[in-house]
Write the structure tokens for this entry.
Amino acid sequence: MGSPSYWREKVYRYRLIAKYCENCNKKYYPPKLACPICGNKELKEVQLPRIGTLITYTWVTQPTKDFATQAPYVVGLIKLDDGTLIVSQLTDVEIEELKDGIRVEAVFRRMFEEGDSGLIYYGTKFRPCLFSK
Amino acid sequence: MSNMEAEVYITGVGLTKIHEHWNKSIKHLAFEAIDQCLKELNYKRPDVIVVSNALGSFLQNQNSLSGLIAENISLIDIPNLKVEVGELSGAAALNVAYSFIKSGMYKNVLLVGVEKTSDKLPIEYNTAIASFLDNEYFTYNGITPSALYAIVYKLYMKKFGVKQEHIAQFASHDHKMAMNVDHSQYKFPLPVEKILSSPILADPIRLFESYPVSDGAAAIMLSSKDQVENKDYAVKLDYVSLSTDKSLLYRDDFLYFKSLHSSFERLKLASKIENKDIDFIEIHDSYTIASPLILESMGYTERGKGYVLLIEGQHEKDGVLPMNTHGGLKARGHPIGATAIYQVIEATLQLREKARNQVPNPEIGLVHSMSNIADQSALILLKR
Ligand SMILES: [Zn+2]
């Protein structure tokens, strides 16, 4: 992944910015240029809540090259507190500690790097809430 | 309008065994399948070549593949093109080939699906497969296709209270069917206990619930009716139906393939058939959990009961709905861009009554394909 695409997308990735369709009252993350339901192109940028509930999770044992050294790692389906669904990596947690229904929060994390001297790519992962929320 | 359209027939087929063909290149595999197909037709020349391939630009660093394949078999004075829609590439390419004849533009279209997945290390293959998802958000975050299917699998078991041993049986079914099929990749039985004790791929998906790394090439000739010479071998390609859906995260229901449902409704309306008229089906079961979801979305069982016909033996060759009679993606293999062409050839063999696991007197066969988690679904209807 080249750096221009990295800079282009980073605000959406770091700050969980979604696109919102007023006609359908739906939020889209990953963000879309037009609403997949009604075709509306006037979508508004909205910030998603950084807290949600883990619906369920799995772990990846056959990663892509970028994540080769990180496997196995946990991936979860999360319902954010506004109802938006997101699939994300879970971090700061042992697999045994996870269960469906726990509260999770977004954290800023390193995703992967391009070799020893290449770019480091950042993004959002989720972890179990540190305090009850 | 429909009376004016040409009828489309499958007049020739050719395929390689599915295998990890270490000593054969992607061009070599395509050559063998095409040669076998054209041989059935006494080397009749096609008017155009349509190639289906999903990963060549990734794993072989090869674009312009259709031209190389055509030149390799000395078909240099006709047009060629390649179609790519991830795992649905073969069905999408077939849709193009079908419309070439339907429209009257060409009379004989050579369609070849080819994939060479064993050229690189497994991690390169996994990276290539993950490219079927939205790279900027899913792949970037380490989300893989198997992780998404794993989440769907867990949601399914939870919602419907279905046990994994029921779903894993779809892989056993595929293996049982593939045992006597010449071109299948795996020819050994796979009991459920062995599946459930295989390593975890993405929990709860076990390694033996997913497709293998497969190389292969399959070719068919599609022809207009006036070009049919051997009537005993020609099978009618009656209808091709493709529909799309929003990607998984935007759907209200993760456990229903809406694109498949609408694709099937359109096909039934156009061909004036009902579920019970389908004599056999070949489905795109990349993971075992896909099978019940496919059967339920097509209305063959109630929701949450997709495994019931299997347990009753209704997917055997003499059952109510014979399924994957050549081993499906799990045991025949899944050479990505070639898979749907293999499925169509298998359906053709059934309708020619030349299949190893022959369905008794079949008249109508259906082939199913899809990309990702039914982001796009294809159904291909074949008639004797
Ligand atoms: Zn809308």
Observations:
- Chain A has two domains: 1-48, 49-133.
- The longest helix of chain A spans residues 3-15.
- The interface with chain B takes residues 1, 5, 9, 13, 26, 28-30, 36-37, 55-68, 70, 73, 75, 77, 85-89, 100, 111-112, 121, 123-125 of chain A (CB under 8 Å).
- Residues 34 and 83 of chain A are 20 Å apart (CA to CA).
